[in-house]
Design a protein that fits this description.
It is a single chain. It is built from 11 helices and 10 strands. It is an alpha/beta fold. It has 2 domains: 189 residues, Alpha-Beta Complex (2-enoyl-CoA Hydratase, Chain A, domain 1); 47 residues, Orthogonal Bundle (Lyase 2-enoyl-coa Hydratase, Chain  A, domain 2), CATH 1.10.12. Strand 2, helix 1 and strand 3 form a beta-alpha-beta unit. Helix 1 packs parallel to helix 3 and helix 9 packs antiparallel against helix 10. The protein starts with 9 loop residues before the first strand and ends in a 10-residue tail after the last helix.
Amino acid sequence: MKTNMSYENIIIRNENSVAIINLDRPKSLNALNSELIDELDRAFDELAVDPEVRVVVITGEKNFAAGADITNMVELSPDEARSFAFTPTFNKIANFPKPVIAAIEGFALGGGMELALCCDIRIAAPGAKMGFPEINLGIFPGAGGTQRLPRLIGASKAKKLIFTGSMVEGEAALELGLVDSLADNPLEEAVKLAGKLAGKAPIALKLAKECINSAGDVDLQTGTKIEAISWSGLFATVDQREGMRAFIEKRKAVFVGK
């Protein structure tokens, strides 16, 4: 991985084409502040163009992220609050051209849960505590939570979580659809899954993600047209030829992202 940047609030390491981003503000339970978000923004720009990275995992030791850092928010004006919002970076992560997996332990609250919602797949520890407590602070989720959550779990369930500010754990989160699976060691499970994805065709993964992401924004007829264009375009790639020839020849395909 060709990382030229130094960071103070995140740690990035590479394992077999998987970039693992560790949120690193343990004293504040990895609460999100502007500095950390700026570093995430720059990191995803770099990882997007790094050919050695095919999948990204976001995690945090002991805690994923216990919301936004409230100490920086109390006296904000409306204009300052809008500038403080993490939405541009979270949108960048949601639209990142490679799969992104969240490995959740401890708290994933408020902005931390919104960050997890930006990921393609969420794996949580059974005891992880997840939710949107912003209503108890006189606000509501403002970095995509009111938009991504209902698309994920349905409007009425999203309203209940956001209106009450309550937390859910393990099986309840899985039943809601807030997470995709549970694991005693979510990071280990996420890295294992990421390793499988890293062996798939990168361009096909990118375009599949784009099509799925667009499904909630367009009608079915438009969506199928987008899908058909993206799907047929894959027949101009080296990986399509390799994948199909490998199938016919009964061998494992080796995808190069071209």
